[in-house]
C-alpha cells in the first residue's frame, strides 16, 4: 500500500492551458450503482466482482460507491480490511490487472497512527495504487468522531487525464473542488441519502459547469444497517452540465460512457472562464 506521503501532489496551476498536459486520448468510464451488504466486505467484493469482470476490454476506469465493502459505517474497527496491506486493495489490483483498467472507490481503512480514515483507493492495472483520505467528514452523521480527516487534496494522472478524487460530503465545498487548471475529471464516490437527492444532483452539475470539467458521481442504492435509504442518482456530467449518464433512481446499473478529450480542450480554449478565476491557496 502506498504511504500517504508518497502521493504526488499537483503542481501549481498555470495561467494558460498547456496542450502538452491536456488529455490526448478519449477515455471510457464505467459507473457501478448497486446495493451494498451491511458490514460484509467479502460478500460485497464477491457481488462487485460479478459486475466488474464483464467490463474487461470495454472500459479504462471503473468507479464504485463510497465504503463499497461495508456501507457508511461508524464502526471501522469491525471491518477486517482495516489492515495494511488492505485485503480490498489487493482485490482491486487483481481485478484492475485482469480487466486492464483502473478501479476507484472508498473503504474504511486503518491509518498508520492507529486511527481510521475514509480512504478512496485508485488501483491501476500496472499494479500501482494511490489513495485519498476524505477531507470533509460528515459531522451530522458522526463521521468526525470515528475517522480522521485527510490533509491532502489529491489529483492523479491516469492515461493523461488529471483526476481529482473526492468523497461524498466533499462535493458541498466548492473551494476544495475548485479547478485551478489542475484536473479534467472530478470523481465523487458517495453514500448520499435519498432524502437529499436534489442537492446531490444539483451539486454534481454545478461542480462540472463551474470547473469546466467532467464530473462522475457514483452513489449506492438500498437501505443500510442504520435504516438510511439511498436512491443512487449516479451521474456522469460533461463540462457544460449535460447529463451523459443518468438513469432512474433506486435501480442498480452498470453504464459506460466515453470522455471526449478533444471536446473538453476545445471548449476550455474557446470559452476560457478559467482566465478570470480568483487565485487562492488551500491550507490544511
Give an account of the 3D structure.
Strand 2, helix 2 (87-99) and strand 3 (102-110) form a beta-alpha-beta unit. The protein has a single domain (29-276), classed as Carbon-nitrogen hydrolase (Nitrilase/N-carbamoyl-D-aminoacid amidohydrolase), CATH 3.60.110. The strands form three sheets. The chain has a six-stranded mixed β-sheet with strand order 5-4-3-2-1-14. It has a six-stranded mixed β-sheet with strand order 6-7-8-9-12-13, with helices on one face. By secondary structure, the protein is an alpha/beta fold. It is 19% helix and 26% strand. Mean pLDDT is 91; it is low at 1-17. The protein contains five helices and 14 strands.
The profile of the biggest β sheet is: 6 strands, mixed
- Percent helix range: 10-25%
Q: Give the DSSP E fraction (strand runs of 2 or more residues).
A: 25-35%
Largest sheet: spatial strand order: 5-4-3-2-1-14
Give average pLDDT, whole number. 91
Q: Rounded to an integer, what's the Rg over CA atoms?
A: 17 Å
Amino acid at each position: 500500500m502506498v504511504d500517504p506521503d508518497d502521493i504526488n501532489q499537483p503542481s501549481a496551476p498555470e495561467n494558460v492551458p498547456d496542450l502538452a498536459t491536456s488529455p490526448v486520448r478519449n477515455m471510457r468510464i464505467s459507473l457501478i450503482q448497486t446495493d451494498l451488504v451491511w458490514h460484509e466486505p467479502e460478500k460485497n467484493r464477491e457481488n462487485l466482482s460479478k459486475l466488474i469482470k464483464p467490463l474487461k476490454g470495454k472500459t479504462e476506469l471503473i468507479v464504485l460507491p463510497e465504503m463499497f465493502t461495508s456501507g457508511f459505517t461508524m464502526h471501522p474497527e469491525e471491518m477486517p480490511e482495516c489492515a495494511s496491506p488492505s485485503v480490498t486493495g489487493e482485490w482491486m489490483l487483481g481485478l484492475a490487472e485482469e480487466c486492464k483498467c483502473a478501479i476507484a472507490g472508498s473503504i474504511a481503512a486503518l491509518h498508520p497512527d492507529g486511527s481510521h480514515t475514509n480512504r478512496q483507493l485508485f488501483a491501476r492495472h500496472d499494479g500501482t495504487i494511490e489513495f485519498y483520505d476524505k477531507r470533509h467528514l460528515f459531522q451530522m452523521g458522526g463521521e468526525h468522531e470515528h475517522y480522521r480527516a485527510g490533509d491532502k487534496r489529491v489529483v492523479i494522472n491516469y492515461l493523461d487525464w488529471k483526476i481529482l478524487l473526492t468523497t461524498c460530503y466533499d462535493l458541498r465545498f466548492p473551494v476544495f473542488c475548485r479547478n485551478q487548471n489542475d484536473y479534467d475529471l472530478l470523481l465523487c464516490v458517495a453514500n448520499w441519502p435519498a432524502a437529499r437527492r436534489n442537492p446531490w444532483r444539483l451539486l454534481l452539475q454545478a461542480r462540472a459547469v463551474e470547473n469546466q470539467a467532467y464530473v462522475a458521481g457514483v452513489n449506492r442504492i438500498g437501505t443500510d444497517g442504520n435504516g438510511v435509504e439511498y436512491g443512487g442518482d449516479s451521474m456522469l456530467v460533461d463540462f457544460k452540465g449535460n447529463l451523459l449518464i443518468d438513469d432512474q433512481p433506486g435501480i442498480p446499473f452498470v453504464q459506460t460512457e466515453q470522455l471526449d478529450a478533444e471536446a473538453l480542450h476545445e471548449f476550455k480554449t474557446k470559452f476560457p472562464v478559467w482566465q478570470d478565476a480568483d487565485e487562492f491557496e488551500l491550507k490544511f
